Amino acid sequence: MQKNKGLYWFRHDLRVTDNASLNSLARNVESLLCIFVVDPRWFKPSHYQSAHMGKHRWRFLLESLQNLDEQLKERGQALVVDYGEPVSVIADYIEKHQIKHIACNFHSGVYERQQWQRIQIQFPQVEAATGEGHSLFFNSQLPVPLKDLPDTFTPFRKKVEDISIDRPMQAMDVFPSVLGETIKQWPETISKIGHDLESANNQSTDYPRLKGGADAARAQLDYYLFESDNITSYKQTRNGLDGWDFSSKLSAWLANGSISSKQVFHEIKRYESERTSNESTYWLYFELLWREYFYWYALKHDSQLFKIEGVRHKKPLTTFAPQRFAKWCSGNTPYPIVNACMNQLNATGFMSNRGRQLVASCLVHELSIDWRYGAAYFEQQLVDFDVGSNWGNWQYLAGVGADPRGHRQFNLEKQTQMYDPNGTFISKWNGASHSGPLDDVDYADWPISWQ
Ligand SMILES: Cc1cc2nc3c(=O)[nH]c(=O)nc-3n(C[C@H](O)[C@H](O)[C@H](O)COP(=O)(O)OP(=O)(O)OC[C@H]3O[C@@H](n4cnc5c(N)ncnc54)[C@H](O)[C@@H]3O)c2cc1C
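That is the input. Now the predicted structure with flavin-adenine dinucleotide docked in place:
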């Protein structure tokens, strides 16, 4: 008799706990192949001069995969990490092992949805299932159809704030046996990719706890809530620029799914019932709602998320000045606070929310550059890149997205006085040093000074 074989495709749900799509596939098959596919295109420059994946997120991803593999092994499974165009890699495995059931976690990104559709079209006879593990709410819980999602955050929040959020699912104790004896095992495949762990081992000493994987995510959640009680002052500290304790630092684990937003939410609730609740404990949930908003925003607006005119269909006046862009990327502008933030990002893969707002405002308003270049550079550099949160926030800052005011220019001097009054942050990240004027040549490559 033909054995019931399943394939689970991990993407941005790198955990075994609270993973409904993995659990339900595992319950229905006798043998299982768990796979993650590294796409070579992630490392090549895109339309906006940046690659999809830079060294910080790559390092974090490899650590997350390693930890996922350990968690699977504890339960009788293992992770296969393969390399190639994802649809053809998955297709090869389906054919080679005569897979009957496939599943993955639903992804709100345009390309990721297309890939999943292509697999389903190619294999109509294979039973395909997805779970909604990246969001707090299920699509069916939204109070309005997706197409009627409010254009701005506040009405969205008011509509969803009281929706009940499912408890996270326990991990299964034992998974079905590993499918295929000769399949490539982690981490041999990765070492062939040429972006191996050693070359990725470039973690900044500033954020030693920013280590990939569900175990580190869990440890950080415990730390921020129960060990340090930092959550009780979150609202007052969240606009900080530097340091580990001013905000939760959960974004990178949430982005690749080492932890789910439901897990975070229910731990906030546990903290509130066992310790205390105040404006700050609520505010961490409030910020998770921002993440949620941009998750559904990405899904609703589809490829409009990446268009210059944004979801407002309002094309900003902009130009492209390569030298200015290069200076912004390398923290070499006339604006010390911007330089410090960019230097911090380049060294660590992290930048505070306040910092992100300031450098984005600078790129759009002071430098008049097309916001998509900034978004793409963030995509490359951020350890916590998330498609909806990044491109949605950039649209917001560029005045073509969800900002009801539509035009938000930060006064960089005033912001510096407010958030770095003693210049500690600028000095630590060497923000005051920059070379020459912003433009050595004019846009037509004509020298500005000719004596
Ligand atoms: C231009 C720009 C680009 C951004 N790109 C990303 C991105 O690629 N990935 C990402 O996760 N966040 C992004 N953010 C949002 C925010 O800056 C980060 O989530 C936050 O700084 C991460 O630090 P934290 O985990 O300590 O956040 P905390 O302040 O502790 O917040 C808790 C969680 O809430 C969510 N959150 C907080 N603020 C926002 C927000 N404005 N939008 C969406 N979710 C939010 C995050 O999941 C975060 O981990 C961006 C913001 C801006 C202005």
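The pocket of flavin-adenine dinucleotide is lined by residues 238, 247-251, 254-255, 284, 287-288, 290-291, 294, 352-353, 356-357, 360, 378, 382, 384-386, 389-390, 393-394, 397 (CB under 6 Å).
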